[in-house]
């Protein structure tokens, strides 16, 4: 038979649990009779909880856990549980934040990959542009060369006044005769007037007297004619229109190789450079432009504007 409570002398059962005093008396008490909370019954026996009755407490026995202390312990445990819940909640927030930053990093990485691809594409485009520029320069050079090649047999006469019903071939023959060069009609393929180019903007200028372009039948005749022109210039003999036709005014005539528009522009820039930098000589031979600083310096062929830029170096 179960032991009775020392206070109410009724049995201690599951429905009416009790507790044993750990003091000297070692007696049993109902939790209600000992004025203890019913929750003590749920505390495991191996939890280390000890209780002394009032008599044993007053007898000065070994200190054990009081009801107040137990309540305080429960409060602390509840507080600790709440703190743990808060920590868990904070951990969840931290995990969410970490996931957010992880997603941002992934997004940034994808954007960086896209940026890298864009940079590579730009590099490819820049390389293509450089190649196209180089090809364009080469094509322009080739076109200008072809344009000049088509003028190899040509000479250009500037300053000769225009007349009605003029015979340009006869005029060319008369000019050749005036500089001691024999040219026959069979030596000339064609002769025609062309509007001069405004060298500042490379367009035809209708206000100026049109020049005469003569195309010889072969290079031998053309070279013979141009050599005679150079010899005449060296002797300081000025060719004028009235020497060819007495009915014309005393007007200077200029004769040179028939240059392409690009070479005409280059020739003008070269002459301006020579004038501004004390280069004594600038001339054209076989449709090529040459310069020389003085009689003792070397002869330089001007191929393009880059050549002009290097002349002072």
UniProtKB/TrEMBL annotation:
The keyword Aminoacyl-tRNA synthetase does not apply. Residues 2-59 form the PHD-type domain. Residues 122-149 form a coiled coil. The keyword Transcription does not apply. Keywords: Coiled coil, Metal-binding, Zinc, Zinc-finger. PROSITE patterns: ZF_PHD_1, ZF_PHD_2. One of its GO terms (molecular function) is zinc ion binding. SUPFAM superfamilies: FYVE/PHD zinc finger. This is PHD-type domain-containing protein.
């Amino acid at each position: 038979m179960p032991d009775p409570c020392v206070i109410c002398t009724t049995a201690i059962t599951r429905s009416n649990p009790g507790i044993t005093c750990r003091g000297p008396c070692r007696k049993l008490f109902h939790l209600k009779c000992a004025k203890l909370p019913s929750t003590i019954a749920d505390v495991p026996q191996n939890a280390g909880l000890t209780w002394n009755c009032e008599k044993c407490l007053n007898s000065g026995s070994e200190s054990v856990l009081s009801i107040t202390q137990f309540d305080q312990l429960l409060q602390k445990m509840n507080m600790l549980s709440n703190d743990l819940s808060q920590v868990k909640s904070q951990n969840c927030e931290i995990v969410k934040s970490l996931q957010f930053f992880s997603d941002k990093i992934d997004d940034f990485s994808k954007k960086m990959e896209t940026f890298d691809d864009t940079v590579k594409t730009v590099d490819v485009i820049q390389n293509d542009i450089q190649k196209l520029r180089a090809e364009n320069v080469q094509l322009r050079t080739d076109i200008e060369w072809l344009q000049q090649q088509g003028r190899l047999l040509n000479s250009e006469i500037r300053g000769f006044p225009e007349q009605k019903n003029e015979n340009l071939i006869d005029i060319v023959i008369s000019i050749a005769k005036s500089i001691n060069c024999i040219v026959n009609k069979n030596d000339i393929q064609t002769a025609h007037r062309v509007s001069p180019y405004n060298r500042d903007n490379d367009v035809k200028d209708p206000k100026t007297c049109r020049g005469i372009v003569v195309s010889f039948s072969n290079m031998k005749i053309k070279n013979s004619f141009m050599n005679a022109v150079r010899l005449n210039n060296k002797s300081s003999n000025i060719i004028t229109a009235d020497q060819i036709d007495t009915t014309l005014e005393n007007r200077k005539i200029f004769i040179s190789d028939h240059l392409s528009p690009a070479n005409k522009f280059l020739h003008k820039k070269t002459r301006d450079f020579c004038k501004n930098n004390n280069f004594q000589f600038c001339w054209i031979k076989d449709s090529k432009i040459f310069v020389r600083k003085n009689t003792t310096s070397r002869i330089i062929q001007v191929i393009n504007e880059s050549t002009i830029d290097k002349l002072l170096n």
